[in-house]
Specification:
With 247 residues, the chain is of the alpha/beta class. The protein is 39% helix and 23% strand. The chain has two domains: 36-190, Ribonuclease E inhibitor RraA/RraA-like (Glucose Oxidase, domain 1, 3-Layer(bba) Sandwich); 201-240, no CATH class. It has nine helices and ten strands.
């Protein structure tokens, strides 16, 4: 499937998917047998805020451990590096996903590269590893998710080896073109077909659970409301005019 078709399908569900939490998405995907979709350990450097979600298409870059000494700065080699090639080709609506092996001893991006990604129209950066210049990165305006922080540059430990290929992101296989759903709990990657399923069923589940929480807050028992009995589902339909769907 080409990128234009994926983007068209993402745009068609964006509004609905932005109403779905990663917790709800994870539960729905688990129900379909898709267990490893949540990027373990990747959290936002700066909170997005209650109810705010990011939905975009994955672009990928992969690092490996450096085995040779780091050479002198070579501007031409840097321009051709997998990291820079990916960043300079980012398109609006894309999310920069980097497998840096989860390494805690080198920072992959900082405020300058984060700024460039934001200007290119990227929605976020997902770093399976560490980030540097984090105080400044928080002010750039590009949401960044990572495993931690380190002031050293990536070259002290790592080298970017390829881009736009499948990568590992905290135990998740991320394939270029995957849909990324992210909120303050982290990020999930899924194919577009599953993203459409989550968008359709997730909003129903979110609405039902808000209603359930209100009933529990008012003294209702989890035996009756979580999950709701058939009688309580009838109550939900009467009070909201909505059908709960399949959960």
């Amino acid at each position: 499937m080409d990128v234009a078709e994926i983007d068209r399908r993402i745009d068609a569900i964006r509004g609905e998917l932005e109403q779905v939490s990663t917790a709800t998405a994870c539960q729905l995907l688990d129900g379909l047998g898709w267990r490893n979709t949540y990027m373990l350990g990747l959290t936002p450097l700066k909170e997005l805020g209650d109810g705010h979600r990011i939905v975009g298409r994955a672009r990928t870059c992969r690092y490996l451990m450096r085995r040779a000494p780091q050479g002198a700065h070579d501007p031409e080699a840097r321009r051709k590096s997998a990291e820079i090639v990916t960043i300079e080709s980012l398109q609006p609506g894309e999310i920069f996903c980097v497998d840096a092996l989860g390494l805690p001893t080198a920072g992959i991006i900082g405020d300058i590269l984060s700024t460039r990604m934001r200007v290119r129209g990227a929605l976020a950066a997902m770093i399976h590893g560490s980030v540097r210049d984090t105080v400044a990165v928080k002010d750039v305006g590009l949401p960044v998710f990572c495993n931690g922080m380190h002031p050293g540059a990536s070259g002290r430990e790592l080298v970017a080896v390829d881009h736009d290929l499948p990568i590992n992101m905290g135990g998740v296989q991320v394939i270029p073109g995957d849909v990324i759903l992210a909120d303050d709990e982290g990020a999930i990657a899924m194919p577009i077909d599953l993203a459409e399923y989550v968008a359709e069923h997730g909003t129903q589940k979110e609405t039902l659970e808000i209603w359930i929480r209100g009933k529990i807050d008012g003294g209702g028992s989890v035996h009756d409301y979580y999950p709701p009995t058939p009688e309580k589902l009838d109550e939900y339909r009467r009070e909201t005019g909505l059908v709960s769907g399949s959960h």
